[in-house]
Design a protein that fits this description.
Blueprint lengths: L9 H9 L5 E6 L2 H15 L6 E2 L4 H6 L2 H15 L3 E6 L1 H5 L4 H9 L5 E4 L8 H16 L16 E5 L5 H13 L3 E4 L25 H6 L6 E4 L5 H10 L3 E4 L4 H16 L5 H21 L3 E5 L2 H13 L3 E7 L13 E3 L3 H11 L3 E4 L4 H6 L4 E3 L17 H23 L8
Parallel strand pairs: 1-2, 1-3, 3-4, 5-6, 5-7, 7-8, 9-10, 9-12, 10-11, 12-13
Amino acid sequence: MTVNPCRLCAPLGAVTAFKGFAGMMPILHGSQGCATYIRRYLISHFREPVDVASSSFTEETAIFGGRAQLQTALANVNERYRPRAAGIASTCLSETIGEDVEHFVRDLESEGVPLATVSTASYRGSHAEGYRDAVASVLERFLSTDSKVAGTEPSVGNRVLLLPGMVSPADLRYLREVSAAFGLDPVLAPDYSETLDGGSWEVYHPMAPGGTDIDDLRRLKSGTPWLGLGPSPTKAWTVAESRLGRGAGGLLYPMGIEAGDAFFEALKLVADRPIPTAIEAERSRLLDSYADFHKYLGGVGVGIVADADLAQGTAHFLRELGMDISFVAVPDSASIFDGGDYPAFGGVDYDQVAGFVDQYRPVLLIGSSKLYRISRERELPLVRIGFPVHDRVGGARILHLGYRGSQQLLDRICNLLLEQKQSASALAYSYQ
C-alpha cells in the first residue's frame, strides 16, 4: 500500500518540460481531470497561470480509442492559441487502453503544428522521469540531423546546449547568466524561467512569452558542445550525443565547492577562456562561509527528500559542510545512490519517510512542502527546496545551483538551526 507518495505524476513533469519551449502547448491525451490536477499543482508552486489542453476522454473514448478526441483537441488548440508546436503526453487512461499515439501522430501533425510526443503513464514513473522523457522527445523531434558523422566537425560559434534537469526558474536564469559570463550563447532545453516565472503583462498573451526557440535547436550543428546536469544518464543525453557528438553528461548539480568547480571547469573548457573573476569571488565567499559556519553544522544529522538529481547534489554539498547524512529518499523508480555510505531509498512514500525519520533521527529535514507534516509532528526544522513549494511564496525563485545558490542554501540552513536553538532557549538569547 502507498500512503502519500513522494512522487508526483509523470505527465506533470512532461508538462513542465513542454512549457520550457517557446510557443509549445502541452496537451494531455486522457481525461480532463488530469489537466486540472496538473494545472492546480503548477499554479500553486509557480504562482503563474498555466494552460494545459486535454483530449478529454469520455467513457466511449476509453472503449473505442481517442484518436478523434485528440484530433479535436489539436484543432481547438490551433484555433485558440496559435501555437508554434505542441507537446503531447499520454496519461494513465490512454496508456491502459493501449493507445498508440506515436502510430497516428504524424498524420495529425500534417494537419497542423509540429508535435512532440511522450509516453507518461503515472504508474511507471515519477514527475522527474516524465520531465526527462519529455525533454528527450523534444530533442528527438527538433534537434538537427543534418550531419552523418556526428562529432567530427568543429563547434559552431559560441553556442552550447545545456540540459539542466528539473530545476527552478531561478536556476535556469543563473545557468544562462554564468554561460554568458564565459562568452557563451547557451541553448537551454528546456527554459521555463519566463513562461513559469514571468512579469506582469501590459497586453494579453494567449501563451506566456519566453522559452527556448525550437528553431535554435534545429540550428545546432554536429560538433556543438553540450552539458547534461545530473548524475543519472537520460534519454536526452543519448539524443544529444547521436546528433551533436560527445558532450559532458553526468555532471553533479553544481552545489558546493567540488561539484561547482567541476561544472565551471566544463564551461571553461567549452569557452576556452578563464573562469570570470565574479564567479571566483563567489567561490571565495562560499569557502569562507564553510570555515565561519562549520561550528553550527559539524555533525548535524540531516534527512533529504527530493528528486534524485537534486537529492544527490544536496547530499554531496552538505557532506562538504561536515554534516551527517541521516538518510536520503527519492521519488524516482530506482535509487541512484547505490554504493553510498549513508542510507538511501528510492520509490518511497511519505509514510516510509516518517519511519526513516524515526529510525535515523535527523536534526534537520530538507525537501519540498510535502515534507512539512512530518517536520511539524516531530518538531524538526524544514528547509524547503525543489518541487513543490506550496506553503511559502517564491518557490520558483529558490536558487539551488552554483556557488551563489549554495551560499543561499547554506545561510538558510544555519539561520534555521540558530532560530530553533534561540526559540528553545530559556534565556531567549540576544546580542545587545
